[in-house]
Known about the structure:
Belongs to the universal ribosomal protein uS17 family. The protein is built from 1 helix and 5 strands; from the N terminus they run βββββα. By secondary structure, the chain is mainly β.
Amino acid sequence: MKSVVGVVVSNKMQKSVVVGVDRLFHHKLYNRYVKRTSKFMAHDENNTCNIGDRVRLDPSRPLSKHKHWVVAEILKKARIYVPPSAADSVASANIKKEVPPSSTS
């Protein structure tokens, strides 16, 4: 088997990720290209992969019932949205309350 490149779909397990690998093939009857996605479970030793990362998988010996791949390298990290923390929003709300309203009398 040879190395494959895919996108991390799930990283909810410890030291394991699920990677979706797309492939295109030509459908002879419809004369169109069809895209199919295969999901592979892969071993991620340091838990460094996040959802959306583009990774290269290398085949390995069976590590568990479904894991036969190892994450060789992370080709591109995903851009992850980090919402402002609750502490920042509370601090900005307190600042707004401390400013006295201007009176027009």
